[in-house]
Design goal:
heterodimer; A: alpha/beta; six-stranded mixed β-sheet; five-stranded antiparallel β-sheet; globular; disordered C terminus; B: about 375 residues; mainly alpha; ABC transporter involved in vitamin B12 uptake, BtuC; about 0% strand; disordered N terminus
Chain lengths: ~350, ~375
């Protein structure tokens, strides 16, 4: 992955909103939204249940009308974009009930080609190749001949994403994609999303409660703060760190905060390049960086969090069991301790 | 998003492209239907030698003029009616099951059948008192035409209500309830009429309710056939949209389907089908619910591109078979059609459902 290339992709703005107000009828959920979505950007949308995450996604995807304000997709007002054209740039992934539905995985994914094909449903060679490619991207080619109701939640989730990719979108919305998945499947999904954003320049907006997972790959977090009415979305743009995070995630950089918390000390095991980067970063904050040899498969990654109005960085934990083993503390204690270590926005490099 | 350089992909594709095979079930259905159509023409209360059929059908000459009349004026129109009605009612049922995501839906769920029944009840039970019958007698129509005309008026009224509701109401669930409630209102007004009607008129009303593929004849087919073919064509043309709506309206919207138009078109075509059938043949029950289920079990898919033709064939088979049985070949009497469809069909549907439930199909 070339860093320069990555930045070139991220600079193009795909969708913007201007003083957007969302909700149903007279009930305003969020107002005055000025948001930007760039190519290759991953955005985690967090907030409590009922705070309007799904409504925001539906409104941005152009499926639900906004109450006021403007949404611009590729420079055109979204209401003026033709349905089919919209479906060619925006795809949505949400939970699918396969009850009563008998389709093969291939047929299921082929529905993603509907914006491109005629009324008779005839798939051209190019459609078949996009479908196969989408299945391959989510590593689900082996599910093509299976019937969808025989699949597990994780397998089904892959097909749903493949179906969305078959639309060849520039922008992918996901509504709680990790909700029924076990821990390892969640990590596979995150890797996939990151690859799609980094390698293919796909912009991804995902509503999620699993922020501890999503923080690892997100460039931006939109937090629907439930304290204020009308609620605001706070957007933190943290591109510089996103790169580190991505590398950290992909290269499995191991970072451990001194579990005793007696010293401002972190332990790191990563490539030389990353170690140098980490040193540079943490020395500015008077943190001592110590090398150590990570034991196989536990690691910590750097994540972003947005809390109230200030940008803050915090450490987050992955692989909870392994970490509590090495620290000797219970995970909850450790998590609380690690979460209390923060940098404030003005200290950010 | 995926790369556009596909020359190599397309060459690779020849191997990976899924086989295009017409399901064996469809071929089987076509064969069965052809046999049944032949039986429908050959069998009936009057025995006509099979050797003679050849002459009557292709040369249009026969030693017995009565036989020729029976074949051309009764059996052929009745078989054509059965095939068309069965096919289109089956597809209308499939449309409703998909749109309302309800396995026991059929076109009668819209209340259009109740509307047609209501129209017939008004004309039959009150006799000459309705504007429709006045109008009909003024232009010299006979009883069946009056019934048909009132049924069409009743069906059109409900169709209008449903389409109006479809524009106002977002949720298909509420639409379903509106249809059901309309049916209840119309049904109870029919009950009221029954309470005060002449026994003779009640008898006529009840026998109309038995359903019959013989009543339209060539004259009825002239009107019925285009309507049924139209509704079937609309259904076939919206197969892609129906596939999309399998996963909910929100999803269909997100892949560029205008679900509002789809809803309106689907409701209109199913209602036209139900209204026309009820007007000309009486309220034909069961086929609309059963045919889609049998088709799904035969083809093991929810893909409407496969399901719509199969449902048409299955519906036509069920209707033709029921008509043949109802005629009681060799006997003088005729059984009520609706009794036959459900009496034979329901156990078959239950048997097939129970047999397949464990493997692939659950309705």
């Amino acid at each position: 992955m070339s860093i320069l290339n990555f930045y070139a992709r991220t600079n193009e703005i795909l969708l913007t909103t201007d003083q957007l107000k969302i909700g149903y009828g007279t009930q305003v959920l969020i107002s005055d939204l000025n948001l930007n979505i760039k190519c290759g950007e991953i955005i985690a949308l967090i907030g409590e249940n009922g705070s309007g995450k799904s409504t925001l996604i539906r409104t941005l995807a152009g499926v639900q009308a906004s109450l006021a304000g403007k949404i611009t997709l590729n420079g055109h007002p979204i209401q003026k974009v033709d349905r089919n054209e919209k479906a060619k740039s925006i795809a949505t992934v949400s939970t699918v009930t396969t009850e009563n539905i008998m389709l093969t995985g291939y047929k299921f994914v082929s529905h993603g080609r509907y914006p491109y094909i005629g009324w008779n449903g005839h798939l051209r060679p190019i459609d078949h190749s996009v479908i196969s490619e989408s299945l391959e991207l989510v590593k689900a080619s082996h599910l093509a001949e299976r019937t969808i109701h025989s699949l597990s939640d994780g397998e089904m989730q892959r097909l749903v994403i493949a179906r969305a990719l078959a639309q060849e979108p520039a922008l992918l919305f996901l509504d709680e994609p990790t909700v029924f998945l076990d821990q390892s499947t969640k990590l596979i999904l995150l890797n996939l999303l990151r690859d799609l954003a980094v390698k293919h320049g796909l912009a991804i907006v995902s509503a999620t409660h699993d922020i501890e997972y999503f923080q690892q790959i997100s460039d931006t977090i939109w937090n629907i703060d439930s304290d204020q009415i009308p609620r605001k979305v706070h957007s933190s743009n943290t591109e510089d760190f996103a790169l580190d995070i991505r590398d950290g995630f992909s290269q499995r950089m191991a970072l451990v905060v001194d579990p005793t918390l007696l010293h401002n000390r972190i332990f790191i095991d990563a490539s030389d390049e990353l170690k140098a980067l980490a040193r540079q970063l943490f020395r500015r904050h008077a943190w001592e960086v110590t090398e150590y040899k990570a034991k196989s498969d536990y690691w910590l990654t750097l994540g972003m969090n947005q809390e109230s109005h200030r940008s803050q960085i915090q450490w987050l934990l992955i692989n909870q069991k392994k970490l509590s083993e090495i620290s000797g503390n219970s995970f909850q204690e450790l998590a609380a301790a690690v979460n209390s270590i923060r940098f404030t926005a003005d200290q950010m490099p | 998003m995926p790369n556009r350089n596909r020359i190599i992909d397309i060459i690779d594709l020849q191997k990976s492209m899924p086989r295009i095979d017409i399901p064996v079930a469809v071929v089987l259905c076509v064969v069965i239907l052809l046999i049944l159509i032949f039986c429908g023409i050959a069998l009936g209360s009057i025995k006509i030698p099979i050797g003679e059929l050849d002459n009557i059908l292709f040369v249009q000459k026969s030693s017995n003029e009565a036989w020729k009349t029976i074949i051309w004026q009764i059996r052929i129109p009745r078989t054509i009616t059965a095939v068309l009605v069965g096919g289109s009612l089956g597809v209308a049922g499939l449309q409703m099951q998909t749109l309302f995501r309800n396995p026991v839906a059929d076109s009668s769920i819209l209340g259009v059948t109740a509307g047609a029944t209501w129209g017939v009840a008004l004309s039959v039970l009150i006799g000459t008192a309705t504007p429709a019958t006045d109008f009909a007698s003024a232009i010299g129509w006979e009883f069946t035409s009056v019934t048909t005309f009132s049924a069409i008026l009743g069906a059109a009224l409900v169709l209008f209500i449903i389409l109006l509701a479809a524009q106002k109401v977002r949720s298909v669930g509420i639409l379903l309830i509106i249809g059901l409630m309309t049916s209840y209102v119309l049904g109870s007004s029919v009950t009221l009429l029954l309470a005060y009607a002449d026994p003779e008129n009640i008898q006529r009303y009840i026998s109309w309710g038995f359903g019959s593929f013989r009543s339209p004849g060539w004259r009825g087919l002239f009107w019925l056939a285009p309507l049924l073919i139209l509704s079937s064509i609309i259904a076939t043309a919206s197969a892609k949209q129906l596939n999309a709506v399998l996963f909910g309206e929100a999803y269909a919207n997100s892949i560029g389907i205008n679900t509002r138009i789809l809803k309106t078109i689907t409701l209109a075509s199913a209602a036209i089908c139900a209204g026309a059938v009820t007007a000309f043949c009486g309220p034909i029950t069961f086929i609309g619910i059963a045919a889609p289920h049998i088709a799904r079990m035969l083809t093991k898919t929810s893909d409407h591109f496969v399901l719509i033709p199969t449902t048409m064939l299955v519906g036509a088979i069920v209707a033709t078979l029921a008509e043949i049985v109802a005629q009681l070949p060799g006997h003088d009497s005729v059984l009520p059609l609706n009794a036959i469809t459900a009496l034979i069909g329901a156990p078959i549907v239950i048997w097939v459902l129970v047999k397949y439930q464990t493997s692939t199909y659950s309705p």
